[in-house]
């Protein structure tokens, strides 16, 4: 009898798992035959986020040369490396181009087709363009995956959930704002993937409050300006007359940092140095688990500082007052933030060359402007300075910190759910928009179509309107009849609109205090409330407690998602082998449990 594997989600994560199944199957799969069922209403490869039916104006926020779906020898995995082209090599693009998302979708479709073709002849892939509603079946027996619009379930020896970003029910604040909008005839757009939002209710010339200054805002900005017929001539925006006026603010009050616009010449910082596997092992061994601020963050700070100063001392020694060897020794021995600050002050004369993560994280803390117009000038100056710095190799320690962030993320994945702050901090520093997008922000600001509100932005619903304020400009408020929450929904299982995850939760799947699905960090098996891994159910993605920066990554950076995909694929193949061969090897039996 042919064995059955169901993968729910056929976007980049599901495609990555399929690629690892194809890479590992020749050595690990010895069954009579396997049917792989991909369940996703969107086409395999790109899935929902990278589908073809979206505006060509929407870009990736990565250079084409920094996007790959293929493993290399930097990925710490047991499976074989199967190299393949980056996006720019596949598409014949300049590697420094920021491609549109539809091109990335075509690349992902090609990766999917290549992976499918690489499977053994007795393995067949079937795509079901439907939504999965629930999974049933005993722990020790075959599972059933129920699909929308199909009366009979798909039988499954194993199920892998490879879902991406999820829609969510509103939290208390969002529900109250939505109710107020309905009562008073206002417009309230909740957190959503911007390409899926209906923006038609945002009327030309009218003010719109926007809460959120990250990548979702960039998409919103593009769709409401160029998407409505405006265009850029050099540094000037020529409006179509159909644009609303966007008033944007956030907790930080500034946009995410620009993508860095140069390559790293010379040696990379030797990472990990202060936060590697041994340190993570020690953190995991702490009774009750580590506290992020007390136990983890000091190691993160020291690791990022090491990356920064290694680059400064080795590439720009004229801006230091100490030999690198001496600094490195004292840096390693320094105990606590006061000792590190004293060492850095003595060794790095210019404060602009010192790494201050707190100042980077909250650049407007304590900053006050006398007027709203003065703040517009001030934030434009801030964005201009960020663009200059992020495109100037004289500040190459910034790129070293970026590499440090990637290294740290790869280590922190093993700790499971460490709270949402770290993911936001990482995205703000390492996953910001292309430089041209920030230049477009400046042009829109000068044209009067983009107005900055400030840090700590608050929104109230009163007197029949929405009102926004910020301590950055004391006493200033702006009112509007439309409010857009420019961010993705939080990936909490308890609030997701995904029927399958809701049913899993009701069936006893465990979740973290932040609402993420608990999984076994070794192979992605779903845990129950007693901490037992389910023998036949796996989950990978941003809704789990071992989420990664993304389903694809930069070449030669270790690719935590690739490592997870490989571990899950191997566990699946071992399990299927053990079921097909009663006298399977002891290793196969152990991994199949």
Describe this structure in words.
With 593 residues, the protein is α/β, with parallel strands linked by helices. It has 3 domains: 3-168 and 491-592, FAD/NAD(P)-binding domain (3-Layer(bba) Sandwich), CATH 3.50.50; 172-256 and 433-485, FAD/NAD(P)-binding domain; 277-430, no CATH class. The protein is built from 17 helices and 19 strands. The chain has helices at residues 12-28, 87-91, 101-118, 172-184, 215-224, 277-284, 292-315, 324-333, 337-347, 357-361, 372-390, 397-412, 420-430, 435-446, 499-506, 560-580, 586-592; strands at residues 3-8, 34-39, 123-128, 132-136, 143-147, 154-156, 158-161, 187-189, 207-211, 231-233, 236-238, 245-249, 450-454, 458-462, 465-469, 477-480, 482-485, 525-527, 533-539. The longest helix has 24 residues, at 292-315. The radius of gyration is 25 Å and the shape is globular. The model is unreliable at 583-593 (pLDDT under 50). Pfam families: NAD_binding_9. Residues 6-165 form the FAD-dependent urate hydroxylase HpyO/Asp monooxygenase CreE-like FAD/NAD(P)-binding domain. This is Adenylate cyclase. Residues 517-526 have a biased composition (Basic and acidic residues).
